[in-house]
Specification:
With about 700 residues, this protein is α+β, with helices and mostly antiparallel strands. It contains 16 helices and 24 strands. It has three domains: about 100 residues, no CATH class; about 200 residues, no CATH class; about 280 residues, no CATH class. The two termini are about 40 Å apart.
Length: about 700
């Protein structure tokens, strides 16, 4: 109960001071014996009752006796009697310089001690907030526009939802966002300080008699001081004050709540964006150093890409191939093309080459080509965990079984495809068409193929009832409609994954150059490439296929791999486009949320700064009022009136210091009042000013 009583008295004391502050326009001095040292200055007496000895001491040392100031709303300090025997009520008011009414007076006040520190307060708070937030916003943009790369495809990270940042680790990005959040929380009080200039200007305007009904009550003023100090409790009390009596116009509190809501919303938004980025930012590539010892280097850049060579001495249907490429001269020196034995092509097809390797791109498939995947030619010596972007060529193939259309039979495994002018009897495991039966169209060639594979007696019994397939004991026989497409591919290698970034159809000349070795007679004097390799791969894939669709897909992939492998002898190595040591995936939504909140935070700070500056320039007294808008200022005014009653450009100006410069001259004590209560007191120390 005692604690509750003390708290009630503290609240009452705050309410008293607040009420005095809102009523300072009634400057009435009751004590005729008091003459201020400065006629233009109205002093403030401490809001507590002192003993008679203390009053006499104040009267001799200070020009302000305890009973010297009276106001419209009085606050009793004791039960002293007037000469008529009636109880006397004494009040105090806040010291405010009279407001200059002329431009000359206002200019004089502008140059005086009264507002000499206004720029320190405004510019310090603005600089601590605006400059860092602008720098942070610029740093976020630099991360995106200075380091992001345009990846067209990445499994698990849709390009519509993520930015891909090269060279910056997730820890660095998270450290930046964390620092933004920390700085926002630490310096958010600066914004409340800037808003205090707006409140000071409004209270000053209302106290001059303009719409006095909107002046705050003592309780509202106490809540306002809590809000201006950045107190969340003050913010909630302000909302409660508005909701408790909605019919009452809480003008000052409403304005304070609006400004506070904007500040807290921006801080909360920055915090949410930071947490979101913490949770969802991922590292896609671990640091990898590619040493020069295991690569063919061009200016320290690995030559892992592939391009077509020129002058390889190839011909199509007896016509020499002459395609103009802006490539290095003598690109075929030391290379083996198909007409010279195809050694590199055979090694690549069998997976024994030290230079070339065939891989399948990691993606669902080409939507405009039957959703089939692409087999590409890559560098075999690239480290397994290396990450880079390079160019190459790729092949996609589609197979569709058409045995029923071609009237396949198990009699000597014959077929007759009238629509394709292709028929015969199986004499080899794979029967490829001649060049006259090919139907090229841009980068695509259409053709028909017959194939027979052998297994165990019951290996293919699950396909026995399919009309497009003939099962004869342990043998499977069918005819396939085939389409092969050649593409120019830009791919991203991330460890063991090869992710397509750009897939463009090759021109018809390049397409024919790549697929021609697969067909007998397509190249002059050449009977086709890799028939025995293709037969072996057809057999192994047929044994593992559980359905006709799987069989078609596996055979199509086998032929695509063999086709691009056949082109390895006419490919040159070229430098990669980009080499990644660090690649980070950062979601777009939380990034723009954080950036927008940070940028708006900076703009909002600038707006408050401009408004505060304009208010002070228009009315210099705003700075004097703002210096007293805080619990610190109220305490000084109540307990150290001799020094604190004058003009002030900051709260520090309100303190009275000792002559020796050893801190504040007075010591605060608690004294018992004549009515049995308690009050704070700060009796002057000996030798104090």
């Amino acid at each position: 109960m005692a604690s509750e009583g003390r708290n009630n008295e503290d609240i009452y004391s705050t309410q008293q001071s607040a009420m005095l502050f809102q009523r300072y326009r009634h400057r009435q001095i009751e004590d005729t014996q008091y003459t201020p040292r400065n006629p233009t200055q109205i002093p403030l007496a401490p809001l507590h009752r002192r003993t008679s000895a203390q009053q006499n001491h104040n009267h001799t040392e200070s020009p302000v006796p305890l009973h010297s100031v009276q106001q419209h709303h009085s606050i009793p300090t004791d039960n002293a009697a007037t000469p008529n025997g009636e109880p006397q009520r004494r009040t105090t008011i806040l010291p405010i310089q009279p407001f200059p009414k002329t431009t000359l007076h206002r200019m004089a006040a502008f140059k005086s001690k009264q507002i000499s520190g206004k720029w320190t307060i405004i510019l310090t708070n603005a600089t601590l907030t605006f400059v860092p937030m602008i720098v942070f916003a610029s740093a976020l943009l630099l991360v995106i526009f200075g380091n992001s790369i345009d990846l067209q495809n990445f499994p698990g990270y849709p390009i519509e939802e993520y930015y891909f940042i090269q060279g910056i680790s997730p820890n660095s990005i998270i450290a930046l966002t964390s620092f933004i959040t920390l700085w926002t929380i630490v310096c958010y009080g600066c914004l409340f300080t800037l808003t205090s200039f707006l409140h000071a200007n409004e209270i000053l305007r209302l106290s001059e008699g303009k719409d006095a009904a909107n002046l705050p009550t003592a309780h509202e003023f106490a809540v306002l001081l809590m809000i201006v100090s950045g107190s969340l409790m003050g913010y909630f009390r302000g909302n409660k004050c508005i909701l408790k009596r909605p019919l009452r116009q809480h003008f000052i509190i409403q304005r304070a709540i609006i400004w506070s809501s904007v500040i807290l919303f921006l801080c909360f938004t920055i915090l949410i964006g930071d947490i979101w980025l913490h949770v969802s930012t991922r590292s896609l590539v671990a640091p990898e150093v590619i040493s020069q010892s295991n690569t063919v280097m061009t200016k320290d850049i690995p030559n892992y890409g592939r391009k077509l060579s020129t002058g390889c001495g190839l011909s199509i249907n007896g016509t020499p191939i002459s395609i103009e490429y802006s490539f290095a001269e003598n690109a075929c020196d030391g290379r083996m093309d198909m007409l010279m034995g195809g050694l590199e092509a055979h090694r690549t097809a069998r997976g024994t080459s030290n230079h070339n390797e065939v891989v399948i791109l990691d993606f669902p498939g080409l939507k405009d080509f039957y959703n089939e995947t692409i087999s590409i030619l890559v560098e075999a010596k690239a480290p397994a965990e290396s990450s880079y972007m390079a160019s190459t060529y790729g092949v996609a193939t589609m197979f569709k079984s058409i045995g029923k259309e071609c009237h396949i039979t198990d009699t000597r495994f014959s077929w007759n495809c009238a629509d394709y002018s292709f028929g015969g009897t199986m004499t080899h495991p794979v029967m490829m068409p001649g060049p006259e039966l090919l139907k090229p169209l841009l980068n695509v060639v259409k053709w028909v193929m017959a194939a027979k594979v052998d297994g165990e007696d019951t290996t293919f019994e699950h396909l026995e009832n399919d009309p497009d397939i003939v099962i004869d004991g342990a043998s499977l026989f069918t005819v396939m409609h085939c389409e092969t497409a050649i593409y120019k591919v830009d791919y991203l290698k991330l460890g063991s994954k090869y992710i397509p970034q750009s897939v463009k159809p090759a021109n018809i000349s390049v397409a024919e150059l790549i697929y021609s070795p697969m067909f007998p007679g397509r190249l002059d004097g050449f009977e086709g490439f890799g028939a025995e390799i293709l037969a072996s791969q057809f057999t192994s894939s047929a044994l593992s296929s559980a359905s006709k669709s799987e069989l078609e897909h596996h055979w199509a992939q086998a032929l695509a791999k063999l086709t691009i492998a056949s082109a390895s002898g006419i490919m040159d190595s070229v430098p990669i486009k980009i080499q990644f040591h660090i690649l980070t995936a950062m979601p777009k939504t939380p990034f723009w949320l954080l950036f927008s909140a940070t940028f708006i935070y900076a703009v909002f700070t600038l707006g408050l700064t401009v408004t505060a500056t304009r208010n002070v320039l228009a009315k210099a007294e705003v700075r004097d009022v703002q210096a007293r808008m805080g619990f610190e200022g109220l305490v000084v005014l109540l307990l150290d009136p001799k020094f604190g009653r004058g003009a002030a450009s900051s709260m520090g100006d309100l303190f009275r210091r000792s002559e020796a410069g050893q801190g504040y001259s007075d010591r605060v004590t608690i004294v018992k009042t004549g009515t049995g209560g308690w009050s704070w007191s700060a009796p002057p120390s000996r030798g104090s000013v």
